[in-house]
From TrEMBL:
This is DNA-binding protein. Transmembrane segments: none annotated. Signal peptide: none annotated. It comes from Streptomyces corchorusii. Keywords: DNA-binding. One of its GO terms (cellular component) is cytosol. Residues 15-69 form the HTH cro/C1-type domain. InterPro entries: Cro/C1-type_HTH, Lambda_DNA-bd_dom_sf, RmlC-like_jellyroll, RmlC_Cupin_sf, TransReg_Diox_bact_type. GO terms for molecular function: DNA binding; DNA-binding transcription factor activity. It comes from the Bacteria. CDD domains: cupin_XRE_C, HTH_XRE.
């Protein structure tokens, strides 16, 4: 089994567990998240790899960041995580690769994430996983267009964008090369 498939199985099981903890049916979760019952069911059974947008909607409903969700499917947290052991998750549909750089720990407010977007990749989130989330995006390579609300920011390598996320956001790889960035996320 590929590592990506194993991660999808763990994520699916955790999503099913969260829904059960809340006592929600698939229909109730579908109403709360705006995601169809069939998509939720396929994600929980790991029949499909969940997209970043889908996970974002579910994180919003469950009141956690994506890093928190991903850390919940890992082994016990440690103060140091080697590069080879950092959790990597890929949204195959959009060309987005996400590496959890920080050692996972649900009790901490801050975390570092490495993001990679393939040329032409375009990811839209209709809401933040947690309202008021603070993000600092430092673009290491490539070009990136970030839309927060009605403001569009065009970033080049070395630029850093700070934003408090309260509404819709969009990340688009604007150049011919991959965009690689570090995202510092601070929970409110």
């Amino acid at each position: 089994m590929r590592r990506e498939d194993a991660v999808d199985l763990l994520i699916g099981a955790r999503l099913a567990e969260l829904r059960a903890q809340h006592g929600w049916s698939l229909g109730e979760l579908a109403e709360r998240s705006g995601v169809s019952r069939s998509t939720l069911s396929r994600a929980e059974r790991a029949e499909t790899s969940p997209t970043a947008a889908l996970l974002n909607r579910l994180c919003h409903v469950y009141g956690r960041t994506m890093s928190q969700l991903l850390s919940e499917v890992e082994a016990a947290p440690a103060p140091l995580v080697r590069a080879a052991d950092q959790q990597v998750w890929q949204d195959r549909a959009s060309g987005f690769v996400r590496r959890s750089v920080s050692p996972p720990h649900t009790g901490l407010r801050g975390e570092l994430v490495e993001g990679r977007l393939a040329p032409g990749a375009d990811i839209a989130y209709d809401r933040p996983p947690l309202p008021g989330l603070e993000q600092h995006l430092w673009l290491l390579e490539g070009a990136l267009e970030v839309t927060a609300g009605d403001r569009v920011h065009r970033l080049a390598a070395g630029d850093c964008l700070r934003m408090r996320v309260t509404g819709a956001t969009r990340f688009r790889c604007a150049g011919p090369d991959e965009a690689r960035y570090v995202l510092a996320v601070v929970r409110p």
